[in-house]
Known about the structure:
By secondary structure, this protein is an alpha/beta fold. The protein folds into two domains: 7-234, Spore Coat Polysaccharide Biosynthesis Protein SpsA, Chain A (Alpha-Beta Complex); 254-448, Hexapeptide repeat proteins (UDP N-Acetylglucosamine Acyltransferase, domain 1), CATH 2.160.10.10. The protein is 19% helix and 30% strand. The protein is built from nine helices and 37 strands. The strands form five sheets. It has a 23-stranded parallel beta sheet that branches. A seven-stranded mixed beta sheet has the order 5-4-1-6-10-7-11, with helices on both faces. A three-stranded parallel beta sheet has the order 30-33-36, with no helix packed on it. The N and C termini lie far apart (93 Å). The relative contact order is 0.07. The structure holds uridine-diphosphate-N-acetylglucosamine and magnesium ion.
Amino acid sequence: MKAPVNRAERNARIAIAIMAAGKGTRLKSKHPKVLHEVGGKPLLAHVIAAAEQVVPPRDIWVIVGHEAEKVRESVQQTGVQFVLQEPQRGTGHALMCAAPALAKYEQVIVLSGDAPLITAETIAALRDFHLQKKAGMTILSARLEDPTGYGRVIRDGGDVKMVVEEKSATPAQKKIREINSGFYAFSAKALLGNIERLKTDNPHGEYYLTDMAAALRKAKQRVAVVQTSNPSEILGSNTRAELVDLDRKMRQEKCRQLMAEGVTIFYPDTCMIDWDVQVGADTTIEPFVQLLGKTRIGSDCRIRSYSVIQNSRVADEVLIKPGCVLDEAVVANAAILGPYSHLRPGSEIGEGAHVGNFVETKKIRLGKKSKANHLTYLGDAEIGDGVNIGAGTITCNYDGVHKHKTIIEDGVFVGSDATLVAPVTVGKGAYIAAASCITEDVPADSLALGRAKQVVKEGWATAKRANK
Ligand code: UD1
Ligand code: MG
């Protein structure tokens, strides 16, 4: 099923309703089902992303109910609209609650908020098939090896006679492998004019949207069915096991896409790459790497094993050695990080800079070609270009109440084991002697010593041993 995705004017009278009000009892969770994540973002956000490519957000109606406020908050920046289903009495009832909002449209496409693999192409193909058949209802179906748990499509010739839910199916009906995807297209008139016919005489005592098939047949409306060629797109996530399975499928697909774009990923099954992550061509990702959230990695980078990078921007030709953790960090071209660097939010690492073993940074700018290679904490600091930060250096940024800033200008050499008590400025080209505690500003091109003078007592050890 391939059809062009078209947001042209003919869509003006088409709405997409996304059912997202259910509790998700089978997940055994206190959080609403549609906010559970696969590929690093909520189920519902994936469905909205696909829907948005078919109709504008103002024509997308998300039906919320269980934890409605939380669900609304998590996706409202997309500009979609909401209707409230309270209480939640089944998928048919969800559409009853949406009826007033949908009355102004000619066609309504209905999607499930818990089936995140759906694509815009499939939604558009469902729409086109439905319009072409001039049907009252068109069901998107799929043939599954194991149809357990899904509603079965009972055909009558080419069209649909009814949909039977697993719990009500006879042993013969359970053998049918063509299942209801939970995605439908309706003529708004057929849907809204007949929805009151739904009853709750089923094992759950709910209004089933699936019963619209039989109801519309009775009302002499055509109920068509179109089978998807890609059954994995319609998989739902009703249980933890299904959720994890979908997550794996989505990440496998993500890795396949990145590899098609020129990224090398060794042992992709060991990597966790979120759906919205971008990676440039000729970058190599080693086993057991996690790239999360809105992370963007440039080209020609190498991300070595056990690094976890979240919501960060990494430019080109960057080498990230094993075991680095980056969170909301920005790294410029040709920088080298790790092993075991921890870049916390607000860290900006300059071009060709080095951040090494057990170095923690937070809210800092490290200039071009500057180096902080060993056992260091740099927080709330402006560090210029060509600066050398010796091993064990610490910016003391916190006085117990407030955070203060350390400024280290271009070309400064900070000796090992220095503590810089902020607020403090070290001027351009200055030297800080090793083990100094710097509490006052250091002028440019000077040497600052802030430590006790060394005392040597010759023969002291020999005398001590003799006294034993
Ligand atoms: C539904 C279909 C089933 C189909 C399957 C595909 C019905 C009766 N059955 O079953 O035929 O094979 O999807 O995945 O529709 N929801 C509401 N309000 C409610 C109840 C549910 O908005 O009162 C939402 C849920 O949040 C969910 C979606 O509707 O996003 C589907 O509900 P769910 O309980 O998952 O239905 P299934 O049992 O999967
Ligand atoms: Mg479901």
